[in-house]
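Take a look at the protein record below with the fold in mind.
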Amino acid sequence: MMSRARGGIPSRVLAIHGVLLTCGLLFAAAVKAQTMEDRAYVGFTFARGTDIGSRGGSLDERQLLDLRLPLPPVFLGKTVLVPSVGYETRFMGLERKGLLADMPEDEALSRRFHLLQLGLSVIRPLSPRWMMVMGATASTRTDFQSPYDFGLDTTWAGYAMASYLVGGDPGVRVTFGLVALYPFDISPVIPMATFVYRKGPYILELGLPRLAMLLKVGEGLELGFTGAFDQQVFRTRMPQAPLGPRAHYVRETQLRFGPTVNTRLGGGNLWVSSSIGLDLLNDYALLDRNRERVDLEMLRSTRPAPFLRVSLGWRPPRRPSTASRQSGTPPEAPSGKLRLPPLDR
C-alpha cells in the first residue's frame, strides 16, 4: 500500500516531484535547457566572432556542444537519491590579427575545452507543500593540451534548497536556498531563488541563472523569450608574448536573450527548441593564478554577439495535480524543462 503524507498526497508522488525539481536545479548549471521541466537534452550553440578591444583584436566564432542526462533515481522510503551526469565541449579563442598578427604559428590562440560534471542530490518531502533538496556537484575541465591537475581543474558546489508549492499546485512553485562554491571569485556562498508559474497556456520561470516567458499554442508549440547567464573558467597554457602579465585561466561570461520556439515531435515527449538572439555580455577574459583578471587593453570593450542555439530535449509526462485528481479535471498537457544553478565555475 502506498504511504501518504499529510494532506492525502502519496509520499512517492511527492518524491517524484522532487526528482523533477532536482533535475531542474542540477541542470540550471548549464542554463541551456528549453524550460525547467526538461530531464535530458543535447544541444548545439553557435556564436559569431566579434571585435574585442581597440587594437584590432577579434574573437573567434564560438561553438558549444552540450549533453545532460539524469541517471535512475534511488528511492529509500520517502528519501530519493538522484545522480546526474553532464558533458560539454566548446571551442573559443582569438583570431591571429591586430597585436596577435605576428604571433608564431606554433602558438595556438584557440582552444577546445571539455567539461564533465557529476552530481548527486538528496530529496526529502517534508509535507504536501514543502520539500527539501540537498546535494553536491563536481565539475572537471581540460583542453587535453595542458597537464591535467585534479585540484586546479576541478570545481565543487554544494547546495541546500527548499521548494514550496503555492496552494499545493505543482504548477506554481517557489524555490530558495544557498549554494556554496569552491573555488570562488567574490563569495563562497550565494543565495538563490526561483519562481515558476505554469498555468493554462502560460509558462513563466524567473530567477538565476535563467528566465523563460513562453506561451503554449495548442499542445505541441511554445513561443516566447528566454534568457540565461553562464560563466565558465578553464585553465590552459597561454602564449606569454606579447600579452605581458602571465595568465593561467580563460574566463567566458555570457548573458543571452532572444526569441525561442519549442516544438513537440509527434505526440511523444521529445521537443526541438531553436533560439536566436544576442549575447549581451560576450566577455572574454584572462585570469592570473589567483583568478584575478589580467587587465589587457586588447581584451577590453567586447561587443554583443549574435548566437543561434538548437537543442533536442526529453520531458517526462506531467502528472495531474492533486486538485485535478480529486475533481476529475484532465491534467494539463505535457510541456517544459528542468535544471539547477550554475554550480560550476
Notes: The helical segments are 11-27, 150-153, 322-327. The first helix runs from residue 11 to 27. DSSP finds three helices and 18 strands in the chain.
